[in-house]
Sequence to fold (147 residues):
Amino acid sequence: IISRVALAQTEELIKTHKTFIVDGGGSTKAERMHLKKLAEKNGYGVLAVWAQVDEPTARQRSLKRSKRKKDDVYNRSISEDQFEKDKKRFTPPAANEQYVVISGKHVHAAQAKVVLKKLVTPREEAKPAVPQRQDISRPNRRNLKIR
Fold:
């Protein structure tokens, strides 16, 4: 049910023609490819941000959520079995996917810069080259070597 609702929300967001972030899902290549096809069909680009963290930290965060922590208010703890199923189901991004890896253990301004740079790079590459104006008041120089 949750994935269907999330997909419906994504389809509605696409209609706005505004930039948006999908936080969650995309654990498998098939899920990421489905989202990519939907996005590209509607003129969007996709960048996956992989927040990489070691397994003990991921396990501890998933199994023991705290309702007192601001970030955990809407997240529920999962069982050990569910953690193992999710771990087996996960497929890391492949070389042919657009993605960037950041630390899931620490939040740093430098990581945000890496993501923003990756988002901006395709736009810069897509810009047409602006022809350089030549100064016609000076004659062209020739590179001469005197020996």
Remarks:
- The longest helix spans residues 109-126.
